[in-house]
Structure formats: C-alpha cells, structure tokens
Amino acid sequence: xxxxxxxxxxxxxxSLVGSPVYLAPEVLAGHGxxxxxxxxxxxxxxxxxxxxxxxxxxxxxxxIKDAHAGGRRTRLADLRPALPAQLFNAIERAISTNPxxxxxxxxxxxxxxxxxxxxxxxxxxxxxSGAVVIVAAILAGLLVSRPRTPALPFAERDWVLIAPFxxxxxxxxxxxxxxxxxxxxxxxxxxVNVVSRARVEDSLSxxxxxxxxxxxxxxxxxxxxxxxxxxxxxxxxxxxxxxxYTLTTTIVNPADGTTVAAASDDIASADELIARIxxxxxxxxxxxxxxxxxxxxxxxxxxxxxxxxxxxxxxxxTAATLLEGEHWQSSADALSRYQSAEGLLKQATERDPAxxxxxxxxxxxxxRDDVVVTTADCLPLAERAFSLxxxxxxxxxxxxxxxxxxxxxxxxxAYEALLQLVPDHYWALLELEPVxxxxxRLDDAGRTTLRAAAGRPNSLRFAIDTxxxxxxxxxxxxxxxxxxxxxxxxxxGAESVSSVAASDITWLRLWxxxxxxxxxxxxxALAAAQEAERQWPYTATGPWLYQLSQLYxxxxxxxxxxxxxxxMDPSFAAFTRSLMAARREDWAAVRRLVRAxxxxxxxxxxxxxxxxxxERVVAEDRRRGERxxxxxxxxxxxxLRVAQxxxxxxxxxxxxxxxxxxxxxxxxxxxxxxxxRALGDVQGAIDLLEPLGASRASAVSYVWxxxxxxxxxxxLVELYDQAGRAQEADAVDAEVRRLLAVADPxxxxxxxxxxxxx
Length: 758
Known about the structure:
This protein is mainly alpha-helical. The chain is 57% helix and 5% strand. Strands 1, 2, 3, 4, 5 and 6 form a 6-stranded mixed sheet that branches.
C-alpha cells in the first residue's frame, strides 16, 4: 500500500517512500510500519473515493506531519453527510490516528466493507459502493504487497526541475549545497533530465518576472506549467532536529500540484548529508520510473561524492550559482561575477585540492570568453582538473576531458562519450556544437544545435539557432515554423532582448529574404526585404537599418542602402555612404567621403586602393596606443600588403587564415586568391574560392555578407577563364547574374561579367 515503509532496523534513520497523504501518523513520525498502518492507507483511499479529498493535506511532508500533530483533519461527515453509516464508520475507523482503534486485520476490514445495505441507495451511494466493492476485491492480495505511488506521466529523459531547497537549520553552510548535489546525482543517471537555470530564465522572461528570481514552491510550479515540458518538480527541506538533521525530499506533479512521493531521512551529522542525498536521489529515480536494475547498478557503483568537504561543496555551489543562467552575461557586473566566482572556487580548491570539478569551474571563470583553454590564466587550472578527472564520476570525467582538450577531435570524442551516458546533457551539447563547427562537421553541428534547442523550448537564442540550421538545410517548412516560433518570443517592437544579440533579431526578421536568396530568387528576396522594412520599427542607433542596408547591398541595390543611411546615426551613415561608393567603384566619391569622415576606416581605404592613407591611419593609431576592433591582425595587414602589390608578403600572412571555416572570411579568401594569381598559381587561387559554392548559406546565416561572397564568385569566373575552363566559368557567371537580377544599373560585378563576353 501507499503507506508501507520497508522493514528496517529500528535504530536506523527512517526513510519514507510513497505519497505522504497516505502515510499513517506513526509512520511519518518514524516509528515504522505495520498492518494497521497499511489499513490506514486504505482508509485514506476510501476517504478519497467517497469525498474527492484527503483527511489530512499539505504541500510538503513537514506540513502533513504538522497537520497530524495539530489534529487538523478534514471531517468526512462534513464532505459527505449522506454517506451510509456502515461505510462512514468503516472509513473513520480505518483512518483513526490511534493504531489500536483501527481494524486488527485486513479480513476484519473486508467483512465491515461487505455489509449489505438493504434500503434503496441514492445515486451517489451507488457510485461509492461500487468503489468499495473494487477495494474489497483487492484487499486480500494487495494489503501485504509493497505500495505503489500515485501515477506521474514521466518517461525516460523527461525533465525535472529542482527547486532551491529550504535551509531551516540556520547554518549558511548548507545554502545551495543540497540542490547542487541532487542535480549531480540525477544528471548522472541518464534517465532523468534536470532543467538548467537558463531554461528557467526563459520561462521567467515569458512570465515577465526578473530572470534572477528565486524559485519558491509556488513560482517553481508556475515555471513548470509555463514551460510546458517539465514533468516533475523536486522540492526539499533540511531542518535541525536536536543535534542532527532531517532531510526531506518531495516529488510534485506540476500539473495539479499533488505530492507524488516523498522521502525523509534523519541524519546524525553533516558528514552523512551527501551520502543521504545519494540514497534519496536513487529513490527519486526509481519513483520516476527508472528500472530497478539501473538504480541498483548506480548503488553498487558507489561513485565517489563530488567532494568529502561540505565547506568546499558549499563554496563550489555558490560559485556555480553566480555563473549559471544567461541573463547576467551581457550586464555591467559580468566581470564582477566572474571574479567573485573565481575567488570562491580558489577557496574551494584550497579546502579540497582533489575537487576536480571545482578546478574546472575555476578555469572557466578565469578563461571567461576563451573558446579554447589556452591562456596562461586558466590553462594550469584546467590541467589540474584533467589530472584529477579519474576521481570524478564518468559524466564529469568526460566533460572535463572535452573541455580541457586543445585538440578538437579529442574534445569531440569526449563529449560524444558523455552523451552516450546522458543524451541531453545541456553543457556537453553546448560545448560540442562549436567543436563540430571547427572540425567542419556542419551536419553534426546542426544536429547538436537542434538537440540542445530541445532542452530550451522557450529560448529566443535557441529558436533563432534552430531557424539557421533549417535555413542551411534548405528545409523551408521547418524554417518557417522555427522563425514563427522565434518571432513569437520577441517582445513587440523590441530591437534587442537580454542575452540575445540585436543583430540576431534583425537577422530573424529577414528570414524570408535569406530563404529566397538561397533559392536563386533575387526578386523574392527584395520583396521580403521591402516588406520587413515596412513592418519593423527602428531606431537610428540600432542595428536594424544598418543590417537591412547590408542586405540591399548584397542584392546590388545601392540606392536603397543610401536611402536608409539618411535615417541612420551619423557614424553609421558616414560609413554606409563610403562603403556604397566603394562598392560602386566610385573612387572619387570614396576619397571625398573618407576625408570628411573623422573616423577613417582602414578597410574602406584598402577597398578603394588608398593604401598610403590606410598605412597612415594604422601608424597614427599605433602612435596613440589605440587599436581598432580587428586589432590589426594578420588578416587586415595581409589584405593591405596584397592591395600594395606586396603579394608574397601578403600571402604569408593570409595563408593560415584561408583554411575552411564555418563562417569563411570572404575578404581574406579574395585577397589570398588575388595574391596566388599574381604569384603565378592560378589553380591555387581557384582552390581557395571553389569551396564557397557549396557553402552559400554561410553568406546569409548570420550578418549578411552576400556582397563579399559574390565578389569571390565573380573573381572565380575570371580565374576559370584564365585557366581555360570556360564551361565552369559560364555556370558561375549565370549564378551571379541570377542573384543580381534586381541590382541597380551599372553594378560593377555585372560590368566585370559583361567584359568577359566582349
């Protein structure tokens, strides 16, 4: 029955499994179970069938205990005053708080329930008596069997939200520790998926609540309901009992708020806490439906706890809380949070030098935005985590190996092994996607993005990433659905959303233009751009007008781009006018505009062949100690050298940057091809540009760079002609013309293509 606790040594801490509303008061008090406590559970079931309610209710195990202790019980007579006396008396006797006043045996209770009612029954009584007959029929077989908890619609890899546990001990050393420890145990199972804080923030955003709101029981359930995909809510409480503690864990069905199951352990000292959490986590896994054999394997494995030091775990948990979620990452205090977390983790590793995950998180806090762990600040910390990985759980070990590995194929193998154990591991999916990108495994990267997005159903960022994947796959129905979902998550009229780049929202609003351009439909892309311009609001300093002008440039619509410049912020407008003049190859206008622009752009100067002016800008910036956003790295200086006719020097700088990448550097590839041709290697130049034909989607998957992609394709036509490959030249020529079908008259690329026909 639901109230039967396992047989135990009376001296051992009590562990209660089952729905607490069905548990007899003496079982809740830790005095063990008996046949009379089983009969109490059956009486509660009959009470429920007869009235639709329970004799004692509460939102937690502690509240139910308190209700019993205070005599706060619902009277069956108040709920069903017309219930026949025989049935009423049987139920009341079964749920007596005094075990000695209950039925002595199942047979005695069965006889009481089989009393015949001679007088005509009302309809309500007929319904109740039908339930009684059912219960009487199962008494003989089920009273002695182990109880079943109320059903919860939970399947393998469904999602559980762990709400912050209540620390009622008065000792801050327990703050944040319990939920972190439970999360580790549940994630490691591979059966249960634990909701990330970032996913919670997604729902809080939809609810118009602060993203850093602390989840009490009520708000946690509301998050579950708003999310729509969270099947169970785990809450808990740690209380002081004499010199020891009581740890209580409750599983709640978010759909109706009912308690599905609970576990309660008396703990003699804090040193036993982590071990007890492990045992309760095993109970939770089994209650949610994980196979007993799987749970027993976990129990037999006896994985080492995260750390034997409660103080180290508390420091780690506080640091992890600082770094979890996304809302803070673009805020002014982001650096402060990293530094605070780093300080806490330094203390954690001092308390327990063998705490592998603390070393790894410390490396992450020190690296901050580094994609690969290479900097002097964090590399030794990461290597220390790696040296300790064998002492961690398998899930943690693979994550450490993947995170620390500077060889991307080794990182991919580690994350793939982790995902074999935990298929929806949020952080592994998040880290693996860019690894696949850099390995050129774009299909795998797309699949990984979609898997990660499934764990964040209300995330705008992941919704946009999903749309990008479907765009690259040319899956128009899926793209339309993903774009519609993403747009529904953008507040009306907003140009930016916290934790999502404004440029991403701009890209999303133009999805129809992207799709049309990839389908060689330049008129369709233009119509979509014009409709988006009419539909979406803008601010002069925001990215919308500038990026829309980039799209018009890609279509050869320079007049439209200049029209938008009239509404831009002056700095954006000046750059747009200079760039349009350069795209049109109106070099006199370029010289006039860049001289009038106090913020000279070296890139425009190089484009216009004004290399002396570009060198002067670079020298002046260096003299002042100023650095442009690109910091004069090899790509910029390499392009400058090629524009100066110093081809060998330029190619030396550019060659390492011409390797295949998820987002090709079109200007680098164009300059590199020009250098190779000038050095007599036409085939080498062709080899640089040919792969771009198969990755056209890269030109519109993020900020539009279709103009630069088309320049590379136009140059490839000239290279094919030079190599005597006329048929291939004609094919690329036709492609470029289709994509510039709506261009302004006299487009320079069309002029270059026309020149080859004369």
